Amino acid sequence: MTQYIIELKNICKEFEEKKVLNDININIKPKEFVTLLGPSGCGKTTTLRIIGGFENATSGDLYFEGTKINNMPPYKRQINTVFQKYALFPHMNVFDNIAFGLKIKKISKEKIKEKVEYMLKLVNLEGFGKRKISSLSGGQQQRIAIARALICEPKVLLLDEPLGALDLKLRKEMQLELKNMQKKLGITFIYVTHDQEEALTMSDRIIVMSEGKIQQIGTPEDIYNEPKNKFVADFIGESNIIEGIMLSDYKVKIENRVFECLDKGFEKNEEVDIVVRPEDIQITKPENAKIKGVVKTVVFKGVHYEIVVEDEEKVEWIIHTIHMSKAGEKVGLIIEPDAIHVMKKGV
Ligand SMILES: Nc1ncnc2c1ncn2[C@@H]1O[C@H](COP(=O)(O)OP(=O)(O)OP(=O)(O)O)[C@@H](O)[C@H]1O
């Protein structure tokens, strides 16, 4: 018996001879919240549609609890989907929309009523049963779509940018609600988004994709703190990404200066990419630091200032700090060894 609920093995997909998925391998455990994250067109939705059975892979295999389900029709899979467009039935009220899947299964009226009421409670819409779909806000409609997808108790729920149409505040509220719901029900969620913050907030694991390939799979902390390459570092959060040369273990050269770092295992003099997060650079007086530079711009971002400093070697550093500076001010920068993360080039 496999420990995985969903396994994708060497999945490739071509549309009109254009390869949109290239050797995708993913293992998902029961009750996991896994997010497919990447820019538009990278193949997230296609991957989800293959899992849901709405699309067939050109090659490779899909397993559900250890059984190959490549050719199983969607309705036979214990997998349900929530799309960005709610796809509710406008002529039915809320109750009938949620009850739809159960009515098809010819379940008794009392049981249906009990289950719909449980679902309405779960999505925080108790008492909304008789309301028309058109009288609901976008957020409420999406809650109904989620209730409808969950009522038949699928083992896996696929969610394709389900919060994409909502405003930022509501989206943040719904992110937490969805996460709580997933924990409470113990259902595996596979979630698609291009929003890195959403992925970091909600997921147990994130799968970062670009151009039909997986770039990295890991926990939000792994992906943020240990990005595998320049693409992941750039896509997840704001970063300083600089080229350098790994002189030896724990020593990296950036534009004529040698920095201590915690990385090892590179070839001697290997060309590398280096990422330093803006919140990991400290600003001090020029005389207190090895790196000296001049503040070029200061932008207030609400919780911090974003400052750009050009150092003596013409390297520009983006820095997030709560301390105010002025353009033209001479400053020193402190970058501790654990703030420097060295990555292989072109992985
Ligand atoms: N039915 C189709 N026929 C032809 N090409 C398609 C089809 N569906 C998707 N594609 C192409 O496959 C690629 C991947 O698309 P997909 O929708 O999976 O990306 P995505 O990462 O989900 O993007 P988005 O965030 O914009 O939805 C794109 O280049 C897209 O144009």
Automatic annotation (TrEMBL):
Entry's Gene Ontology cellular component terms: ATP-binding cassette (ABC) transporter complex
Record Gene3D superfamilies: 2.40.50.100, Nucleic acid-binding proteins (2.40.50.140), P-loop containing nucleotide triphosphate hydrolases (3.40.50.300)
Keyword ATP-binding belongs to the record: yes
InterPro entries attached to this UniProt entry: AAA+_ATPase, ABC_SmlMolc_Importer, ABC_transporter-like_ATP-bd, ABC_transporter-like_CS, Mo/tungstate-bd_C_term_dom, NA-bd_OB-fold, P-loop_NTPase, PotA-like
Residue ranges constituting the ABC transporter domain according to the UniProt record: 6-236
Top EC class, one word: translocase
E.C. designation(s): 7.6.2.11
Pfam families from the UniProt entry: ABC_tran (PF00005), TOBE_2 (PF08402)
Keywords: ATP-binding, Cell membrane, Membrane, Nucleotide-binding, Translocase, Transport
Catalytic activity, as annotated: ATP + H2O + polyamine-[polyamine-binding protein]Side 1 = ADP + phosphate + polyamineSide 2 + [polyamine-binding protein]Side 1
A GO molecular-function annotation: ABC-type putrescine transporter activity
Family note: Belongs to the ABC transporter superfamily. Spermidine/putrescine importer (TC 3.A.1.11.1) family.
NCBIfam families linked to this entry: MMSYN1_0197 (NF043075), potA (TIGR01187)
Quaternary structure and partners: The complex is composed of two ATP-binding proteins (PotA), two transmembrane proteins (PotB and PotC) and a solute-binding protein (PotD).
Role according to the record: Part of the ABC transporter complex PotABCD involved in spermidine/putrescine import. Responsible for energy coupling to the transport system.
Name of the featured protein: Spermidine/putrescine import ATP-binding protein PotA
Source organism per UniProt: Tepidibacter thalassicus DSM 15285
Organism lineage: Bacteria, Bacillati, Bacillota, Clostridia, Peptostreptococcales
